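so my prof wants the structure for this chain in the tokens format not the other one, which i didnt know existed until like an hour ago. anyway here's the sequence
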Amino acid sequence: MIFKSKWYYIFSFVLLVCCVEESKAQKNDYIWLSGYDSQVGYDSAWGFSFGATVLNFNYQPVNISYDSIGMNFFTTNTSYCDNNGNLLFYTNGIYIADSSGTMIVNSAGINQGWLDEDWDPTIQTYGYRNRQGIIALPDLNSDSLYYLVHSYSDSVPGSQEENIYTPQILSTYFNKFANNGQGNVIYKNRTLLQGDLGQQVPAVKHGNGKDWWLLIQSRNTNCFYPVLLTDTGLQVMASQTCGGQPVGDTDITSVAFSPDGSKFAHFAVYGGLNIYNFDRCTGELSSPIYYPLDIAKDSSWLGNGIAFSPNSRFLYVSATKIVLQFDMWASNILASIDTVAVYDGFKFPLGSYFDEAQLGPDGKIYISCGNSELDYHVIKNPDGKGDSCSFAQHSILLTSPSVCVPYFPNYRLGALTGSACDTITGLNEVARAAKEQILKVFPNPATDITTVDYGFTDWNKTQPNLEICNTLGQTVYSQVLPMYSGFQKIDVSRFADGMYTVFIKRDNVVVATQKLVKQ
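here's what i got, hopefully its the right format
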């Protein structure tokens, strides 16, 4: 008989609990893809490989690897994982592929038309060119059905690139698991909106914690079309919501909702920056603040990106050679402007400028270079004011050249607790209580560093706290937790060997616990 210590049984119990809990996770944005020219592979003239770089946020720190998948990404880019962080599908605005790289049945020809057939046929190879121009949202009635909402570009006949505009926002609807797992597109390129529209398709959870809002700009105006996704499908609302400064023609634009859904920002290189309050119940914008941001204009490059910090306090604006920070909690938001990065001249190989920005599931903000570089910039502590945000230029080394970061909404946002639209009865307290009990600690046992995965706390409640107690009930470690990322690394190297209990608390009330073994 093989003797097994008490730690073996404790560890086995911890693993069992973790496995059960992991099945309830919500990690839909945990795999990021970028890169192009996958058909080239290794290029001896350049000294590196073309193809896909994969950022896998199921690991901490993020795991970065190379993949020779056939899809290429220009700027239209999104992917979608199941609730455990396993890749389900991805798209470049031309077709949809499953996790094996196989094209989902009937998905070829998304956005097919003048832009890729007449103006630039290479788009079929390299991917569509609308930044933040596609988003994946789940059907609210099924775990197998998904919507893509995407922008379609065209041009006035006989005109040049500068006259390309977006006359339609389209929707594509598909079953990921039909045809023995090969998937099937039920319909594609169905017109959702027509007009002179913005390319971006930003989305945020409705205040009920179930439905989704999208805001589509009516270009050259200060108005947006609210689109609501419910269990009956996509619906364009009857009235627009307006405010702020109109954006002019041919502007390079980025948009972002704050992680808590209370703010919406719209940045155009020539039109400037608009910041709004957003009502998650009604889909309306209010209290616009405008900043011309003339410093963002740079004739050598027109990099453009925007992202909020995990706690929704700070707004970051990336513009070619500078990155700016605005404090949403300041009495005068515009007066709070601070420059947190200035381009340092680095080139690998072309120029690591500041372009698209996306908040990652690890609570860091990743910024692309916009012109085929082998690196990303990262804001390591976006909740920090000024220099304490820890901006690190070209600090993330990619495995292949990239021009973009993918676009994701905050899939983990919950209901607007206590609001008039928090009306989904039966799901409120019971579902939230069950959801908040999910807590994973790994590695476990741990010797030096362990990671707490708390990605399912209710984001609309007060700030969560972490406490670690020994078997005597004494607190040996405590800290306030960031409300977006869901990951926190803890140095346990100085802990005495033994059993500990990890608590997530809110207002001194325990909402989740897990055992930790230090050895």
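also thought this was worth mentioning. The chain has two domains: 6-21+424-518, 27-402.
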